[in-house]
Amino acid sequence: MSIDPERGTSGGTGRCLCGAVSYEVRVPLRDVLVCHCVECRRWHGGPGAYTAAPRADVTLSGEACVRWIDSPESATRARRGFCGSCGSSLFWDAPGRPVINIAAGTLDLPTGLATARHIWTEQAGDWEELPH
């Protein structure tokens, strides 16, 4: 879960499907965690892929369109942010943590990121093919 300077990752930009919410990250992003927990499967329709950055280094545009829902089964009391116009999943945010997790699929390409690891694989759907 580190930044590879060879790939030149220095932050990035992204947005929801309709463009009502966009963001800019001014520091290197964490490599991607692919989460197979039940909540991510229900939220995304499959595994959730997330990168992360310190919340102070993320600038939002269209923040008034972001809606939040509490993750009902989250031990961390996390909440999930999505666009209130198009429904795109954008963020996973646990209170008290210095970083905000950003749905990797919302990033503009190229990202320079790699998959760091798969988590909560014991909750993966029976239709998923997991890496060995």
UniProtKB/TrEMBL annotation:
InterPro entries: CENP-V/GFA, Mss4-like_sf. GO terms for molecular function: carbon-sulfur lyase activity; metal ion binding. Residues 12-128 form the CENP-V/GFA domain. Keywords: Lyase, Metal-binding, Zinc. Pfam families: GFA. Belongs to the Gfa family. This is CENP-V/GFA domain-containing protein. It comes from uncultured Thermoleophilia bacterium. The lineage of its organism: Bacteria, Bacillati, Actinomycetota, Thermoleophilia, environmental samples.
